[in-house]
Design brief:
Layout (H helix, E strand, L loop, with lengths): L2 H44 L8 H24 L6 H18 L4 H20 L2
């Protein structure tokens, strides 16, 4: 094997091990945040701050926020593209949670707000 080929294979090994370390760290952060949101939601319901019949709606909002936070961390740390599946899933989960918390009769304004936020984020990120 020639020297350039050896350097290329070493680079591939370095990149794959870097990806594995990052992936392991990222999944640990995401899993920890999800457990944290679940625990806080259940604690609030247990302490009668929120009702047991609506704790899951707060959990959906929190879970969506966790996905958005994780996507933002990946973007600022690794400069990965921001509009990944986590961003879309986060917006959808927050939207569903807010609709059920506020009542289904406010569905149309919430949809307009969510679409507006998506357009705003798309415009802001396109400038970079």
């Amino acid at each position: 094997m020639t020297e350039p080929e050896m350097n290329k294979s070493e680079t591939n090994i370095d990149n794959s091990s870097r990806w594995e370390r990052h992936h392991h760290r990222s999944s640990g952060i995401l899993g920890g945040l999800i457990l944290l949101v679940l625990g806080v939601s259940l604690l609030l319901a247990n302490q009668h701050v929120i009702g047991w019949d609506i704790w899951w709606q707060y959990f959906l909002v929190g879970l969506g926020s966790v996905f958005l936070i994780d996507a933002a961390i990946q973007y600022f740390r690794d400069r990965r593209p921001f509009f990944q599946g986590k961003v879309i899933a986060g917006i959808i989960l927050i939207g569903i949670g807010v609709v059920f918390l506020a009542g289904v009769d406010v569905l149309w304004p919430v949809i307009i707000i969510v679409v507006g936020l998506a357009v705003l984020l798309g415009g802001l990120l396109r400038r970079r």
